[in-house]
Amino acid sequence: MARYLIASDPITATGPHSLAQVVQASVRAVDERTLYPVARSDAGLAFQPKTLLALLSYCYARQIYGSAHIENDMACDGKFRQLCHDEFPDAGVLRRFRRENRETVRLCLAEALGFLAEQKVKAGVVTKVSPAHLAEEATRRITMAMFIDSLELDGD
């Protein structure tokens, strides 16, 4: 089942109301010059550093870790395919982007996880979550993605 990877609702004046909006806001705040590109500068939208950063941050926040799984989800997501003119990065590009930009992925992911934690606090499921815990959880999820990718590569 494909997951919708593209947010369709704009951020309102009161702030983001969805995980996708939080990821978009977090990625917009990143200076693109700090990102290591993994494709040519004339590559399509899906290969641009900020797009890859948003994609990985969103997927890892949703506990979608394997690069091959993410690649498959992009291929099955009609909105994503339409936006990117049926061009999307393969699992190898996703792995390389994560490797080259791990710290920035971790920071954006921690912000996304902060939003999810706030939702749980509002629902009374958990008490306040510390920024240190969010940073640790972001690191854990990136490590999980690396582990799953290593299993996928071993299976080839």
Descriptive report:
With 156 residues, the chain is an all-alpha fold. The protein has one domain. Helix content is 60%, strand content 0%. It has seven helices and no strands. It has helices spanning 19-28, 49-61, 67-76, 78-83, 91-100, 102-122, 131-154. Helix 1 (19-28) runs antiparallel to helix 6 (102-122), helix 2 (49-61) crosses helix 6 (102-122) and helix 3 (67-76) packs across helix 5. It is globular and about 45 Å long. It starts with 18 loop residues before the first helix and ends with a helix. The model is unreliable at 1-13 (pLDDT under 50).
Topology:
Elements: H1 19-28, H2 49-61, H3 67-76, H4 78-83, H5 91-100, H6 102-122, H7 131-154
Largest sheet: none
What portion of residues belong to β-strands?
Answer: under 5%
Please give the alpha-carbon distance between the first and last residues: 23 Å
Percent helix range: 55-70%
What is the helix tally?
7
Secondary-structure element order, N to C? HHHHHHH
Structural class based on helices, strands and sheet pairing? mainly alpha
Low-confidence stretches: 1-13
Shape: globular
Q: What is the total domain count?
A: 1
> What is Rg?
15 Å
Mean pLDDT: 87
What's the total count of β strands? 0
